[in-house]
Amino acid sequence: MTTRLYYTDAYRTTFTARVVDRSPDGHRVYLDQTAFYPTSGGQPHDVGSLGGIPIVDVIDEDERIAHVLAAALPETPADALDGTVDWDRRFDHMQQHTGQHLLSALFEDLFGARTVSVHFGPDTSTLDLDAESLSAEQLAQAEARANAAVAEARPVSVSFEDAATAAGLRKPSDRGGTLRIVTIETLDRSACGGTHVRSTSEIGAILLRGTERVRKSTRVAFVCGQRALRRARRDFEALTQIAAALSSSIDDAPTAIAAHMERFKDAESARKRMDRELTTFRARERYDAAEPGANGVRTIVVRDAGSMDELRTLAQAAIALPRAIVIGVLAGPPSVLVAASEDSGVDAGKAIKERLARAGGRGGGSPRIAQGSVPDVATAESLVNDLLSARI
Ligand SMILES: [Zn+2]
Q1: What residues have their beta carbon closer than 5 A to ion ligand 1?
Q2: Which terminus has fewer CB within 10 Å in the chain: N or C?
Q3: How high is the pLDDT of residue 101?
Q4: Given this model, what pLDDT does residue 354 score?
Q5: What is d(CA 365, CA 355) in angstroms, rounded to the nearest whole number?
Q6: Given this model, what pLDDT does residue 387 score?
Q7: At CA 255, angle to CA 253 and CA 260, rounded to 5?
Q8: 191 alpha carbon to ligand 1 midpoint, in Å?
Q9: Mean per-residue pLDDT over the chain, rounded
C-alpha cells in the first residue's frame, strides 16, 4: 500500500521515501509513500525525479503506485530516495482540474447540463455535457460566471467522509467506505482523487474554446491559468497577421474578410463566364477554319490543348455548332478524344472504343463525347490518322 501524499497536500513537491519493491530491471519502483500523482480520473501523471533519475510514468495499480524511471535504479544501501515533483506541470494540472470542477458545477447550475466525462489534454481540456447543444451566449455566460468565481477567491478544500453519510455531492459516488471530497465553498462538492488548487483564485483566467457535438453530448473545450494566457497570446498574434494582411484593425477584420470573400466570389464567377465565352470563341474560330466535307460535316483536329479538361471544354463548345466532329490528341498523358455533334451522323463512343482496344488503350464515353488513354504518343497519332482516313 503506497501512502499518497498528494491526497492531503497537493502543494508538496519534495519527499523522502523508502523503496519497498522494484522490478528486476530496476526501472519500476514502489515506495512506502509518494507525492507523485499517477494517471487517473482523466488527469495525466506527474513527472520529476526519484533518486536523481527522471520519472517517465506513474501508474496507479490500486493498492500501489508504480514509478517508471528513465534509467535503472541502482541498489542503495539506505533504500531511501528523495523525490522531486515537477511543479510547473503539477500546478498546471491543478489549475485545469479545479477549473473543470468549477465549470462542471456552473454548467449544471446554470443550464442543467451534467458532466458525463472529462479529459485533460496537453493543450486543451474538455468536458462532455449531457446537453443537445450550447449556444455562444450560454458559453459566454458560463465563462463570465466562472471567472467571477475566480475573482471571489473561494476556498477549495479536501475532506475525507464516509460514503454512507457524505451529503450534497454533485454526483452520488458508487464507492463505499471513505470518500475523498473536494469542496469549492458554496458551489460544489465532488468525490475526486485528483490534485486541486486551494482557492479558485489560483485557477487563473478561464477561457472556453468552443463546443463540438460528440454522440449525444456536447463537448466543451477549455483552458485555465497560463494556458489561457498562452492561447490568448497565440490568438492575438494570428489575428494581428490576418488584420495586417487585410490592412484593417483586428476588430474590423471579420467585416473586411466578408467583403473580400464577396469580391472573390464575384471575380470567380466573372472569370468562369469569360472562360466559357473564350472557349466558345475559340471553338467557333476553329470551326470556321475547318472545310466542310462532302457530307457537310466539319472535322476539327486539336493538337495544342494543354490538358484533357481544356480539350473537353473546347470539344463541347465545338459540337454545339452544326455538323461538327472534334478529334483531339494529347501528348501527356498520351490520350485521344472524339466528340461529334448530334447531326454529324457519328457515334463518338463507338468510333473510339474498338480502335482503343486494338491500340492497347482504354476508355470510352457517350455517342457525343468519348476519350481514352493509349500507351504512347505514336499510338495516339496513328489512332487519330485512322479516324481521319476512315472519316470516322
Ligand atoms: Zn478533481
Answers
A1: 97, 192, 194
A2: N
A3: 97
A4: 86
A5: 13
A6: 87
A7: 90
A8: 7
A9: 93
Model pLDDT, residue 175:
82
Nearest one of 202, 167, 195 to 8, comparing CA atoms? 195
| Structure confidence by residue, pLDDT tens digits, 139-160 | 999 999 999 999 999 999 999 9
Predicted model pTM: 0.76
Give the Cα separation of 4 and 36 in Å (integer).
8
Tell me the CA–centroid distance for residue 182 and ligand 1, in Å: 7
Cα of 183 vs centre of ligand 1, distance in Å, is: 10
Distance 203 CA to ligand 1 centre (A): 13
- How confident is the model at residue 293, as a pLDDT? 87
Euclidean distance between CA atoms 219 and 389, whole angstroms? 69
Q: How many angstroms does the Cα of residue 157 sit away from the middle of ligand 1?
A: 11
Low pLDDT (below 50) residues in the chain: none
CATH code, 277-389: 3.10.310.40
Q: For position 76, what pLDDT does the model report?
A: 67
What does the domain layout of the chain look like in residue ranges? 3-85, 91-243, 277-389
Q: Which fold has domain 91-243?
A: Threonyl-tRNA Synthetase; Chain A, domain 2 (3.30.980)
